[in-house]
Amino acid sequence: MTGNGERQRRESIGRTIVVLDDQPYLWAALRQRLDPALAYVRSATAGELTDVWRSCRPWPWILVGASPVAPTDLPDLLDGLPIVVHWVGRPPAGLPATPSVHPDWTTLVVGLERLRELAHRGRNGVRLLRNRGLQTPDGRIVLGVAHLEGLMAAPDGLALRDDGAADRLAARLRSEIDDNRLPLRLERDGRLLRLA
């Protein structure tokens, strides 16, 4: 039987979806429906967000929000990282990224369940491994590419809040692609980055 401490360590090193909400309902719904092989689901209130965020290595894969107020430190936490943001209900003003907005938790779950395809077919044959890393079409295992894993969670692309952050992230993504000889191409349209 897996103890609580062991589960906490695994959740800190695997891909993690952080649910920002004052109530545990959304966290519980996602945790029951998403395969932990794709990503662990952790919850945080606005006051807990920074501590939970920093315990995710290297950072959360996806942020899901349902809170009517965005924590003041959220822009600094998201700054320049390839983290997709989903929001249930009306998102608060001042979010540093444009979220995918869902009217309720069931449509959110449907959207997140589509990400399972990243573990089966992937993008150009590059698939997500269980919890962390990628597998190439020729079977190679590639680790240490968290930026690419993050961008893979944004099939329509990820828009960053400024050109400098987009420049830095684009350089990092190109490096991860080229250094690992991956059959992926980075496309950029202003601040929008996407994989092709």
Given helix and strand content, the structural type is alpha/beta
Q: Tally the helices: what do you get?
A: 8
Shape type = globular
What amount of the residues lies in strands? 15-25%
CATH class designation of the largest domain? Alpha Beta
What does the average pLDDT come to? 89
Regions with little confidence, pLDDT below 50 for 5+ residues = 1-7
Helix % is 25-40%
Largest beta-sheet characterization: 5 strands, parallel
Radius of gyration (CA) equals 16 Å
Supply the CATH architecture of the largest domain. Answer: 3-Layer(aba) Sandwich
SSE string: HEHEHEHEEHHEEEHEHEE
Q: Strand order across the biggest sheet?
A: 2-1-3-4-5
Beta strands, count: 11
Question: Looking at CATH, which topology of the largest domain would you report?
Answer: Rossmann fold
Q: What is the domain total for the residues?
A: 2
In angstroms, what separates the terminal alpha carbons? 42 Å
Report what the structure shows:
The protein is α/β, with parallel strands linked by helices and 196 residues long. The chain has two domains: 4-114, 3-Layer(aba) Sandwich (Rossmann fold), CATH 3.40.50; 117-195, no CATH class. Helix content is 35%, strand content 19%. The chain contains eight helices and eleven strands. A five-stranded parallel β-sheet has the order 2-1-3-4-5, with helices on both faces. A three-stranded antiparallel β-sheet has the order 6-7-8. The longest helix is centred in the last third of the chain and has 17 residues, at 163-179. The model is unreliable at 1-7 (pLDDT under 50).
